[in-house]
Amino acid sequence: MRRGEHEAKFWLRPEVVVDESFGFNAAELNELARIVSDQRLAIERAWNEHFGEGS
Fold first, then answer.
1. Spatial separation of the C-alpha atoms in residues 5 and 24, rounded to whole Å
2. Are 36 and 21 a contacting pair, CB within 8 Å?
3. Is the dihedral of CA 19, 20, 23, 27 positive or negative?
4. In Å, how far are 24, 32, 44 from 5, measured between CA atoms?
5. In 1-55, which ranges are continuous DSSP H helix?
6. How deeply is 39 buried, as exposed, middle or buried, from its count of CB atoms within 10 A (0-12, 13-18, 19+)?
7. pTM above 0.90, yes or no
8. How many helices and strands, by DSSP H and E, does the chain display?
9. Where do the domains of the chain lie?
10. Among 13, 33, 34, 35, residue whose Cα is nearest residue 21
11. How far is CA 13 from the centre of its chain?
12. Is the Cα torsion angle 36, 42, 46, 52 positive or negative in sign?
């Protein structure tokens, strides 16, 4: 995820966790993690449609 100079990378499996982040505070990261968790299936579906299964 990017917003201006801020960036965060999340792993989706086995559970949603922050891999690395720059510029976001803890409250923002918690909110982003909640959104990613809520949208995980849609994110995975879009990834697989774009890159193929197992990518």
1. 9
2. no
3. positive
4. 9, 16, 25
5. 26-38, 40-51
6. middle
7. no
8. 2, 3
9. 2-51
10. 33
11. 11
12. positive
Cα gap 8→2, rounded to integer Å: 7
**Res 36: pLDDT:** 97
- Digit-coded pLDDT (tens) for 11-55: 999 999 999 999 999 999 999 999 999 999 999 999 999 998 766
d(CA 32, CA 8) in angstroms, rounded, equals: 9
Contacts of 32 (CB under 8 A, 6+ apart): 1, 8, 10, 24
Q: Are strands 2-3 and 17-22 parallel, antiparallel or unpaired?
A: unpaired
Q: In terms of Cα–Cα distance, which of 19, 4, 13, 8 is closest to 47?
A: 13
